[in-house]
Structures are given as structure tokens and as C-alpha cells.
């Protein structure tokens, strides 16, 4: 066959082959594209393992397959992260301590976490059957929440056990284009209880349930602002400290509760009972006159005659009552001022003997101000050394001064020379007496040393206050002064009153024994005026007694005074004790005391308290005679 003939069919075959190859390629590309589409659909349907197969042809479809796989891998990573995030969020919502509810646009509950279910004491499924306003008390509760988005509000909410306080906030959001509300709820029952407790503690006394000082002052201020007549009864229990000290504070607390309950029963309706602390109570009467306050005070005094039964004890206590009143806003200062006035009246009732009432008047305020000024001046006087010791002689059987009682005098820049009777009570009340006693003791030691250097064998007696024995190591402090000043210890005398020993404990006994061992002479002062004078002589190491001036003043005409003084002198002689009689003002008293064996006499008959220099002059016979004549005159 000619070659030309063969080439023609071959060319046709080649043309047909080329045509067929192009069709096959197109079909192959179409199938590859279909597979890419199927992979995309499978992945979109949730098949996370769907992947395109690359043909390694390096063509556009192959590049598209590789790009699709990268996109799928990226999307799968994002999907996994989103799924993990959703799982984390659901976990956090499930364990969240705050209740979380999702509501639709009509306020129906779509979902609720366990905390919300626990708050309302229902299951999540039960909650989803309700609307939000079904759970809140009040018709406008839901409307209030919607009107104030993202703001926490307090409501009363419902559950099977009853209503309870709820804190809720509502936040709108979109999900899938649908408007929803996120409701956050919290049961605030515990917080409300704590707030109520704090409010109670801020306004009431936790022990007795009575109002406290803050509430009392608020009520007083309100009454003053309204010009309302008010009466204050300030009540303090007499000797309550003894009950606390002997029976314990638990018994004391129970007694205070009983006192508060009895005061409530006696107080009229509308009265406010308050406890200021300790054993101090206030009854506030509004719209009351003085006569009504007095009537209530009399009722209280009568009511306290009955005992209080506290556990196994039958306890008696009495009240001292101070009263102050305002009439139609008269004397309307402020609440603190009224409280101060009632306190001053109470102080007056205590001074008059306790278990009684006293009214405030302006003189009490004036006296209190004078005491305050006197206290300030005394504090300055101790710093500036404005005091001086005066000495009153004690005359022995020979008619000579053998000892002197040291008495304080104050050289006040504004008051002149002030006797101890005018300022000693203030020193006692303020506790300044402790510092004053140390000063007196040191000055007495110095004066003894000076007289000894002059050849004068005189003694000095120093008074100790009951407060002196309340300080730590009284004996050690006095002995330290002796060590510094080096006086003749045997000529130092200490006078201790019976009131010091009334509640004496082991510390008092130890102090007296230490001072006795050091060589000081101890005298029981005001002998016979207390409750257990003879017992004290047996219990404590006294060297002598000092007969009180109230027994001496009746000598020798009063049969009772004669019998008592004779008895004291006989007892002292039998016990080997010295006796000093104070308040001797005439020769008849002196003769009687000398005749019955009294070793030392002290009083105006022999001289008034005077300076150390004057005591030296008094030592001469001529001076003694002149001084005696001056005293009699």
C-alpha cells in the first residue's frame, strides 16, 4: 500500500486519538472536581475526617485539592476549639455558684444551670416550664428588671418553702438572630441575715437585747429636734462589782439579763430601755413630765426589793437612779448633754447613800465643772511641786511632841493655801492619790532624816489610801524610797484605814507584812468605825490603833463614848498595842484619855497642822504654852 494512502488513515486515527484524549481528560477533571465537592459536602455535614486526594499532577485541580485540605484542617481546628470552648463554658455554667437562666423574648425560661435549680428548689426541667415573673414576688418585678438591664436589684422570690431574698440582674443578647435575656440570680438570705445581725449589733446590746448608746442618742436627738418633752432615768446597780468578783462574770451577765427584763416590765409602753455598758441602764420616757419620771423611779426602787433568782443563787441588788427632764424642748442642748445631766444626778444619788433617786439641777453641773477644774489644777500641781507637808503633833505622856502626822497642803497659785480636805477626795477619785502618796512618803523620809541630823528623835506618820494597795508591789515601791532617802526607819509610821481592809486580799496582807518586817510601825486608823475592827487586829500585823474623833468628842460626858473608849484601851493593852486618840480639843478629854492609859493625844488642843519649821519652834516649852493658849482662844 502506498505510503500516502497509509498516512491519511494514520492522520485520521491520530486526530481521533487526540480528540478522545481531550475528552477523557475533561471527564477526569470533572470527576476530580466532583470528588472535591463531595469532600467539602462531607466536611460541611460533620465528617471531620473528610479530605481531598491530591493526584500529584501539579495542575490547578491538584492545587485546589491541597488548598481545600488546608482549609478543612484550619476549619476543623477552629471547630474543635469552638467545641472545647463551648464545653468549657457549659462546664463553668454548670458549676457556677450563681444561678444562670436563659429566657426567650417572652420571658419563658429556656435553660437553667444547677445553681439556679438549687436556689428555687426545683429541677432544671421544672424551671423551664415557668416564666421568670412566676418566680418573683410582685407584679412589676419582671418589668423592673427589664427596665434596668445590667443592674443588680433585690427582690422577694418564691419557692416551695416560702419567699426568700434574691438578687437578680438581666442582660439582653442575641443568639442566632433571636433576642434572649440572660438572668443571673443569687440567694442572699445569708447576707441579709448578716446585715440584720450587724444592724442589731449597731443598735442593740447583744447581752440584754436593750437598745445601745447609739440608738439612745439617736432617739434623744430626734425628740430634741421635735421639741418633745423627754425624761431620762439613769440607773446603776449598787455594788454590782462584788457579785462579778465573788460569783463570776457568767452569773453577773445572767443577773444583768434579769435586771433588763424587770426594767422592761416596769417601763410604760413606748419607753426605750437602753444599756450603756457594765451595769448602767437608761429608761427614756417621751412626752413625760417630771412627776411621771419620779413615779417610775419609785416603782423601780420597789421592784428591786425582790431578789433575782440566778441559777442556784438568790441575789439582791439595789439601783441608784439619776433623773433629768426636758419640758417642751426646754434646756434642749443635745443628747450627749442630757446624758451627762442624768449621769450627774446618778452621781448625786450614789453620794447620798445609794438605793435612791436624785434630780439634776444646775448646781450639780457647776460642781462637776469645779471638780474638773480642780482635777486639772491638781495634775499640774503634782508636776510643778506645789504641795507642802504640814505636821500635826502627837503628844506623849510627858507632854512633849513625840510624833507628827504628815498632812498635805497645796500652795495653789489661784486658790492660795488649800487644806487636804478640799482636794483629797479628788485625788482619790482620779487615782492621783497613788502619785501623791509616794510624794508624801518621800518628803516624810527626807524630813525625818533632817530632824535626825538636828538631834530630834521625832516620828512621822503617813496615811495610806485604799487605792495605794491596788497598785503592784506597794511595799517594794515604799522600801525603794527608803533605800534612796535613808531615813530612820523605826520612826516611820503608816496609818491604814479600815476601809482599806474591807475587801483586803492576800496582796494587802503581804504588803503589810513586808513593811512590818522592814521596821515600819503600822497603825489601824479610824478604829471602831468599820464593820470588823477586832477581826482586823487579829488578821493583820498592826502595832497600834488610832481612836476615831467621833468617840473622843463625847468624852467624858457621853456614857456610850466612855464605855467604847475604855473598851478600846483595855483591848489594846491586852494585845500590847499603842493607842493614839485624835480630835482632842479640850483638857477634860485629854485628862480622861491620860487617866485610862492612852499613850498619845492629837488634836487642836495641842496644835493645828503646821510647817516643819513651826514644829521646831513648838518644841520649846514657851512656844508650846503660847500655841496652846492660841488654840484655846
Describe the structure in your own words.
Strands 13, 14, 15, 16, 17, 18, 19, 20 and 21 form a nine-stranded mixed β-sheet that branches. A five-stranded antiparallel β-sheet has the order 2-1-5-4-3. It has a five-stranded mixed β-sheet with strand order 7-8-6-11-12, sandwiched between helices. The chain has 24 helices and 21 strands. Helix 19 (about 535-540) links the parallel strand 18 (about 520-525) and strand 19 (about 545). Helix 1 (about 5-45) packs parallel to helix 2, helix 9 runs antiparallel to helix 10 (about 250-265) and helix 15 packs parallel to helix 16 (about 475-485). With about 625 residues, the chain is of the alpha/beta class. It is about 50% helix and about 20% strand.
